[in-house]
Automatic annotation (TrEMBL):
This is DUF3145 family protein. It comes from the Bacteria. InterPro entries: DUF3145.
Length: 163
């Protein structure tokens, strides 16, 4: 049997015309809202900034979800990560249309992790600060944080075409 681990997805921004495609990916991959609460989005709505998850996916599912989202909704901004399992680190994928795709190993809350060899390799490259920050994923993290603040609480309803 394949190893299984939790996976989490957060959509931080999405054009209304691509919201249904994102909902379809969420449904096809078996994700659901992290918490069941009154007032949360219906199944045919997309809640920006909310965590959609599954507690037991096959390891490697985050990469498949990232690929599906990128192909189905290239105008959306999101992050998806799967938790570490046994001796493997987790996988983190972040995407914005302006910055493209960035990925790294991660911990169980989606924080990127770098080995000492990777860190020393970056030091040895003697990159300008902006390039170093890009390799560390800082522009992606900042862009997604800004979108999370701006779009907090927005629910997209593709069937009506309204947020």
């Amino acid at each position: 049997m394949s190893d299984r681990t939790p996976v989490q997805l957060r959509i931080l921004d999405c054009p209304i015309e691509q919201a249904q495609a994102v909902i379809d990916v969420i449904e096809q991959t078996g994700l659901h809202l992290e918490h069941v609460e009154d007032g949360q989005p219906a199944d045919d709505q997309l809640g920006l900034g909310l965590i959609y998850m599954d507690n037991a996916v096959v390891c490697g599912s985050a990469a498949k979800i990232a690929n599906a989202l990128h192909q189905a909704a290239s105008g959306a901004s999101w992050e998806v990560w799967e938790d570490p399992e046994q001796t493997w680190l987790g996988d983190l994928y972040r995407f914005t249309p302006a910055l493209g795709l960035w990925s790294a190993d991660c911990n169980s809350v989606g924080d990127p992790l770098f080995t000492s060899a990777q860190a020393l390799g970056l030091i040895d490259e003697r990159l300008p600060r902006a390039r170093l920050e890009t390799k560390l994923g800082i522009p992606h993290a900042e862009a997604l944080r800004e979108l999370a603040t701006r779009n907090d609480g927005i629910v997209l309803s593709p069937s009506t075409g309204h947020a």
